[in-house]
Design the sequence.
């Protein structure tokens, strides 16, 4: 069997639940999330780690899940967009702000953008306009021109 | 009793569709997981131009998990060829097989395919396909392609020109003689990649009842049903096209691509679902590109800035084959609009549609109008610089006047601008921009060696190609109508079935606003269904900024038919004459009487119970409209930009951007501003950052991934002030005009003018997009070394 097809046990905590998988060496974390876990809110927008559509939280840190092999995530705790506001619970303030400020159009970049926005707000208690634009520079949005995304994040800063 | 009329049109309502996207429950094609699905992967040509000597599929067929491997020969006579949907009269249409048979003509063209049990196995097997090529000389540039000794792409396209289109009005030759001067300019409209964040994907699923369901991110689901039916040979009634949520379209998801034919064909052959998903790098070489023009322009002027005439010669590079609409873009869509917002009585334009060894070029946000506006705007700006006139005043002087509408540019028959007020737009933009103060600031700073520039651009677009019968003369093989169905259930809730197709536009919200206004029911009681040919009766989809003007109008008319019928039913129930019944805010009442009003819900219930229907009124409350507009609406706008250019680095800093757009009646100002933001940023991207590069010698695509193709990020673009002026369109019942493409039309000339204005102290009069730091820096260096342009 080719090295790429060898399988390895991987245990992760995904949105609060521990799961164990047998994964191919070459499988990316994003494919584990989308294909094995069926959590399709995490998207794939590129193949060169440019777009950020695949951003999830790995041990509390926003991470492009296409840049991580599934085997490397062994033991990690992962939050995807589906875990940000589990069914029945209230929306995260970032999700609410995106709605209020019309910060999404096609919605394809949105889950990744929300993950990056959460990261930015965790890392910077009081980001300025330029900090926000810089802070989400790892995520491409082709629809909104970014302006309303920036506004949505700013609204959360103003609220403190 | 007077019920208050409910108003939804014009309100900045937040989107009703947001929740699923915010929580990761959006459903795009790649999210559809079908049991037993097989995966298709494509072997693509690494050469821009080559003879295929042999395709060896042996190793691929033997690879693990592989169910099928095919080359072009295996499909010959079974499916295809791919034919364009828009064929301008006189066009020579190159033969395009679905998979290349004996020759490849661009890097990325399909040469073979594999279907395997997993995607990884399919990719592995594609790597084992061995193709023997004999490489031929390639040509990628439109000017080079029409040279006498250029490599020829197709036997039936001599000189690599598929189409020659001419348009004229007045007498340009005489204008050139009468002119004080003739100013000349050559401009390049750079080739772009539309870059929807969701790449294309197709899943074809044979259902047990014989139906084939094709899931695809289609801007035009009913058109795709027809094209797939005709090209694969499946009866249309056995095809169901489903477009779920779409991650952006921008014109790229409305053509007919090989993969959209291969998956349906192979799913039927294999009796199993077949899926294809496009990687981003694959997308750069398989999904259509945009723009890619070169224009030679002559302007005949008086020394006071009056423009007597304009002459344009366009070369539109359409890549290796004629894609879906490709013969229409550089021709009627571009050069019909070369005079822009100006009274230019004498006009003469020739457009040549040129094939090259590159990815096919087709519609991208504005299709032709960005190119046309760039011609008009660059021309007038160059004249202003040449004559040392103010760039605002020269526009004001030559603008079409409010009293001129409806206006036929250059006295031609093809184009009518339905309505507008360009002076109003300009004044509003200048005020919001603080033009006079900025101009003074620019002068002061210049004296201190700080180079700031102001850019102005005006545009007029035309949306919703129609009426249907007029599209025949240009060879556009579809109608200009849109359909809507409004079905009221027995509780009084409405379901709207629309042939328009949102790709992020927010139609669930905007169409509901239109229906709610007419139906006078709470917007929460309205559902919108799009993108499923089994549910939606018929349609043309979303492109050319047509959804509100055509799709929305269709819904408006259809909703009125519901009310007309409901009034009849109410009159029967109330035992009064139908003419005495008035309807507002969900209540049917008889003014001037003490008859208790009837709710919409009660009338809806009666429509289905049917006990008390007046004579001649059929049961049910369910109407369908096929709406064919009387003409096209013409949105317009004036944009202003303020930039600072660092001559030592060539870096452009965008300080301010003001957009004032006239899109007629605003349905939803919040969504409208969102469209402007997104469009302007795509236009800024064209002006400053993005360009598809090909190696001119071997035709290799150099911007093959998002690593090399510069899509802007949040820190590369400014905040945009978006304001509106509402001059209602007389062409439709709502008065609405299109909006989706306005930003990408106006922003490129606006940004270029701002940068050139900043660089004017160096004597730099023209630079081609994108105005990247190296390009600007080199121009400044040349100017400083005395090689002014
Ligand atoms: S998919 Fe684009 S960065 Fe991960
Ligand atoms: S909303 Fe479409 S890419 Fe961001």
Sequence:
């Amino acid at each position: 069997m080719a090295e790429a097809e060898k399988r390895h046990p991987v245990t992760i905590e995904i949105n609060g639940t521990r799961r164990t998988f047998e994964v191919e060496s070459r499988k990316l974390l994003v494919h584990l999330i989308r294909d094995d876990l069926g959590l399709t809110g995490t998207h794939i927008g590129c193949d060169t780690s440019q777009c950020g559509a695949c951003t999830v939280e790995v041990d509390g840190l926003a991470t492009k899940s296409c840049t991580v092999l599934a085997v490397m995530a062994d033991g990690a705790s992962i939050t995807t967009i589906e875990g940000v506001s589990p069914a029945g619970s209230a929306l995260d303030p970032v999700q609410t702000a995106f709605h209020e400020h019309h910060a999404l159009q096609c919605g394809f970049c949105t889950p990744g953008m929300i993950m990056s926005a959460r990261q930015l707000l965790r890392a910077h208690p009081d980001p300025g306009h330029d900090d926000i634009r810089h802070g989400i520079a790892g995520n491409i949005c082709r629809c909104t021109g970014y302006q309303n995304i920036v506004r949505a994040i700013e609204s959360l800063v103003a609220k403190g | 009793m007077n019920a208050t009329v409910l108003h939804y049109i014009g309100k900045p309502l937040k989107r009703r569709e947001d929740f699923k996207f915010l929580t990761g429950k959006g459903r795009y094609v790649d999210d559809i997981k079908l049991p037993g699905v097989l995966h298709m992967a494509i072997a693509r040509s690494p050469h821009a131009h080559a003879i295929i000597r042999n395709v060896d599929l042996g190793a691929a067929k033997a690879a693990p998990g592989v169910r099928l491997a095919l080359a072009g020969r295996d499909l010959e006579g079974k499916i295809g060829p791919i034919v364009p949907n828009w064929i301008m009269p006189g066009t020579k249409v190159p033969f395009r097989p679905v998979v290349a048979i004996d020759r490849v003509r661009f890097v990325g063209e399909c040469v073979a395919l594999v279907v395997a049990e997993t995607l990884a196995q399919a990719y592995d097997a594609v790597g084992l396909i061995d193709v023997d090529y004999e490489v031929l000389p390639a040509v990628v540039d439109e000017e080079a392609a029409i040279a006498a000794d250029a490599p020829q792409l197709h036997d039936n396209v001599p000189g690599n020109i598929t189409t020659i289109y001419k348009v004229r009005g007045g007498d340009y030759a005489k204008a050139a003689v009468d002119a004080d001067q003739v100013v000349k300019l050559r401009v390049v409209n750079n080739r772009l990649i539309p870059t929807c964040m969701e790449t294309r994907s197709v899943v074809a699923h044979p259902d047990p009842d014989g139906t084939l369901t094709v899931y695809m991110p289609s801007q035009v689901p009913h058109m795709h049903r027809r094209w797939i039916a005709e090209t694969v040979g499946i009866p249309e009634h056995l095809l169901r096209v489903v477009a779920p949520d779409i991650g952006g379209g921008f014109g790229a998801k409305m053509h007919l691509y090989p993969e959209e034919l291969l998956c349906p064909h192979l799913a039927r052959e294999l009796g199993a679902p077949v899926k294809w998903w496009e990687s981003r790098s694959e997308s750069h070489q398989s999904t259509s590109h945009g723009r890619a023009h070169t224009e030679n322009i002559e302007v005949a002027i008086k020394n006071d800035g009056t423009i007597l005439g304009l002459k344009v010669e366009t070369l539109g590079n359409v890549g290796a084959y004629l894609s879906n609409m490709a013969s229409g873009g550089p021709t009627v869509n571009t050069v019909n609009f070369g005079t822009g917002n100006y009274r230019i009585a004498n006009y003469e334009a020739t457009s040549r549609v040129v094939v090259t060894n590159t990815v096919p070029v087709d519609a991208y946000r504005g299709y032709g109008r960005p190119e046309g506006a760039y011609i008009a705007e660059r021309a007038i700006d160059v004249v202003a610089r040449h004559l040392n006139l103010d760039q605002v005043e020269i526009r004001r002087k030559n603008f079409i006047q409010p009293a001129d509408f409806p206006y036929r540019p250059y006295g031609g028959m093809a184009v009518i601008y339905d309505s507008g007020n360009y002076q109003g737009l300009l004044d509003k933009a200048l005020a919001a921009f603080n033009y006079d103060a900025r101009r003074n600031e620019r002068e002061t700073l210049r004296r201190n060696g700080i180079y700031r520039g102001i850019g102005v651009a005006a545009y007029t677009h035309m949306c919703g190609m129609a009426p249907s019968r007029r599209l025949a003369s240009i060879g556009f093989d579809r109608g200009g109508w849109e359909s809507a169905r409004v079905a009221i259930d027995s509780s009084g809730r409405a379901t709207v079935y629309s042939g328009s197709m949102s790709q992020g536009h927010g139609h669930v919200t905007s169409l509901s606003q239109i229906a709610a206004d007419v139906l006078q029911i709470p917007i929460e009681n309205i559902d919108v269904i799009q993108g499923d040919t089994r549910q939606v009766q018929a349609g043309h989809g979303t492109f050319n900024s047509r959804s509100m003007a055509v799709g929305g109008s269709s819904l408006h008319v259809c909703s009125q038919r519901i009310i007309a019928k409901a009034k009849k039913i109410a009159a029967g129930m109330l035992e009064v004459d139908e003419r005495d019944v008035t309807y507002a805010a969900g209540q049917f009442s008889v003014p001037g009487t003490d008859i208790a009003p009837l709710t919409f819900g009660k009338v809806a219930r009666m429509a289905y119970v049917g006990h008390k229907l007046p004579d001649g009124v059929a049961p049910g409350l369910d109407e369908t409209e096929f709406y064919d507009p009387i003409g096209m609406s013409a949105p317009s706008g004036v944009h202003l930009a303020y930039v600072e250019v660092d001559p030592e680095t060539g870096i452009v800093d965008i300080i301010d951007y003001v957009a004032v757009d006239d899109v007629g009646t605003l349905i939803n100002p919040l969504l409208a501003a969102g469209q402007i933001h997104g469009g302007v940023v795509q236009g800024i991207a064209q002006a400053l950052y993005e360009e598809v590069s090909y190696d001119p010698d071997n035709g290799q695509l150099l911007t093959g991934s998002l690593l090399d193709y510069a899509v802007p990020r949040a820190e590369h673009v400014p905040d945009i002030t978006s304001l509106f002026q509402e001059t209602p369109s007389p062409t439709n019942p709502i008065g609405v005009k299109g909006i989706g493409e306005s930003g990408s039309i106006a922003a490129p000339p606006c940004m270029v003018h701002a940068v050139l204005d900043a660089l004017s102290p160096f004597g730099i009069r023209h630079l081609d997009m994108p105005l990247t730091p190296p390009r600007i820096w080199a121009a400044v260096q040349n100017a400083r070394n005395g090689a002014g342009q």
